[in-house]
Amino acid sequence: MTQNIETIRELSIDQRLALKTAATQLLTEFGDMFGVETIERFLHSSYDQFAGRATVVNFLPLLAERFARQRLRALAKVEGKSDNGLPTVLFLCTHNAGRSQMAMGFFEHLAGDNAVAWSGGSEPGISVNSEAVAAMAERGIDISHEYPKPWTDEVVRAADVVITMGCGDACPVFPGRRYEEWVLADPAGLDVDAIRPIRDDIERRVRALLEELDVTVAA
């Protein structure tokens, strides 16, 4: 595997083993579309995206694998190597810790297997807002397993619709995408009571978006 020396020195034996296992798994999934170097490059660059701000380093290989898998799926769609034909929506906000995570949670819950949702942030936070997690749990939707992540070129290019929420000029713009700005209050620092109206507004917008995309609601 190719990786810079400084990063390799910082990895424990368990982390190196976990990354090697992740690379093997990704190669099994994507080896018919991409070469080993591409897959490892995406895995290691995904690892680097989280390494600088992670508080629990033991989870870094798992996060890197999950993010690399999403990016490789996006790249496969962009390059015409794999496309399930499902509408793909990308939700973007600043920290990918509140609004975009709630929107993706509603979208996945309502769309089921009939559409694809991703999320990202221009300045990803450390963790998903715990109060937002609690507010979504009231609606029976668990977003506690999600994690803040950046947007990448291939993910944006693979999206059919890009929903932005307060990231302003930092949000990426590529031709051929449908862009829509949702003006929503930032739930950062708010308690569950204050987040509920934001949550409900997001749900209404997601339902309207699904209707516009002619996606059958599964729930």
Automatic annotation (TrEMBL):
EC number: 1.20.4.4
Classification via Gene3D superfamilies: 3.40.50.2300, Corynebacterium glutamicum thioredoxin-dependent arsenate reductase, N-terminal domain (1.10.8.1060)
Superkingdom: Bacteria
Pfam annotation, one family: Phosphatase-like_N
A molecular function GO annotation: arsenate reductase (thioredoxin) activity
Main EC class the enzyme belongs to: oxidoreductase
Occurrences of domain Phosphotyrosine protein phosphatase I (ranges): 87-212
Keywords: Arsenical resistance, Oxidoreductase
PANTHER family: ARSENATE REDUCTASE (PTHR43428)
Protein name as annotated: Arsenate reductase ArsC
Species this chain originates from: Antrihabitans spumae
